[in-house]
Amino acid sequence: MSSKVVLITGTSSGIGLAAAVGAAKAGWRTVATLRDTSRADALRKAAADAGVELDIRQLDVTDPASIAAAIDGVISDHGRLDAVINNAGAGHLGTLENETVADVRQVMEVNFFGVLHVSKAALPHLRASGGRLITVTSVGGVVGQPFNEAYCAAKFAVEGYMESLAPVAAKVGVTVSVVEPGAVATEFVSNIGVDLEAEVAAAGPYADALQAYLDRTVSQFLSGAQTPAEAAESVLEALTADRPAFRIQTSDWARGFTGTKLSDLDGSAVLGLTSGWVG
Ligand code: NAP
Questions:
Q1: Which residues are CB-neighbours of 105 under 8 A, at least 6 positions away?
Q2: Distance 111 CA to ligand 1 centre (A)
Q3: pLDDT tens track of the chain, all 279 residues?
Q4: Distance CA 21, CA 25 (A)
Q5: Can you tell me whether residue 70 is helix, strand or coil?
Q6: Contact at 8 Å (CB) between 91 and 192?
Q7: Is ligand 1 within 6 A of the CB of residue 152?
Q8: Which CATH architecture has domain 5-278?
Q9: Nearest in space to 8 (alpha carbons), one of 219, 256, 238
Q10: Angle 184-63-73 (CA atoms, 0-180°, nearest 5)?
Q11: How far apart (Å, rounded) are the C-alpha atoms in residues 63 and 153?
């Protein structure tokens, strides 16, 4: 059994829940965090079904005090932190004319600044352990998608931040990776919390385009979505592989889709270049 400690954000459902259980099964002391610990029933049941123990703690990625309390608590109780998995995130459906700048800021707050806050608080401890900083981004962090402008902007921002940080973090012994899922059958879509019919009705000149986008997206989720456990396997690869790639797609579909834009699918060409800039 490894005595290494991993902290994961957003483990109430979906990929985070599956990754937490998977990490514990792989022998990691797993700190599974949620913004609302009263929503931990599914997580507790999945852990019990798998016969593993989790250390469940509160952490809201938009609340720096809760991040500091969670990370300080891990260090005082476990004495170390070997990996962080920034998994928490939230979708958003909208387009420029039909959303406010405040809406976009909120999307950035959760999906970008949340990752930044957690990573900044964790980095000194990851530096001490020679650890790993892993972030679940999205194929939408590489390819912009209609009516996902704010969400994709936030995920692009995370990818740019992490790709830039990776060679610097490597100099102090920390490995940085991003994991890019395509469609995964989780609470993600329902958690966006919009009434799709009302959204189309209110979309004015964008109504037909939004309806077409929704039809295509629903059929993609019905025909090709991965399970959370399948997507979590790629997260665990970033956690446990000897030399994880910087960029890991969770499926062949995700590789094909991001490959329409990327010639550097795993990030090794860019990092091969930029690593040389830091000696
Ligand atoms: P999910 O089931 O909705 O899980 C998202 C998790 O993030 C939930 O546990 C949610 O907690 C948590 N969360 C949201 N806001 C938070 C905050 N402020 N602080 C802490 N936790 C917060 O969806 P998922 O698909 O597993 O999403 C996991 C990651 O995968 C996200 O980063 C998402 O962008 C990414 N992703 C998903 C898909 C997909 O198709 N599902 C595709 C590409 C990328 P609550 O229960 O409290 O809301």
A1: none
A2: 9
A3: 458 999 999 999 999 999 999 999 999 999 999 999 999 999 999 999 999 999 999 999 999 999 999 999 999 999 999 999 999 999 999 999 999 999 999 999 999 999 999 999 999 999 999 999 999 999 999 999 999 999 999 999 999 999 999 999 999 999 999 999 999 998 888 888 888 999 999 999 999 999 999 999 988 888 889 999 999 999 999 999 999 999 999 999 999 999 999 999 999 999 999 999 999
A4: 6
A5: helix
A6: yes
A7: no
A8: 3-Layer(aba) Sandwich (3.40)
A9: 238
A10: 95
A11: 21
What is the DSSP annotation of 12-26?
Answer: SSHHHHHHHHHHHHT
Tokens of 157: 């921002």
- Rounded to whole angstroms, the Cα distance separating 70 from 5 reads 13
Q: Would you give the DSSP letter of residue 186? A: S
Catalytic (active site) residue 213: no
Map out the domains of the chain as residue ranges.
Answer: 5-278
Give the position, in ligand 1's atom list, of the atom nearest the Cα of 136.
32
Query: Do 155 and 108 touch, CB atoms closer than 8 A?
Result: no
- The answer, yes or no, to whether any atom of ligand 1 lies below 6 A from the CB of 87, is yes
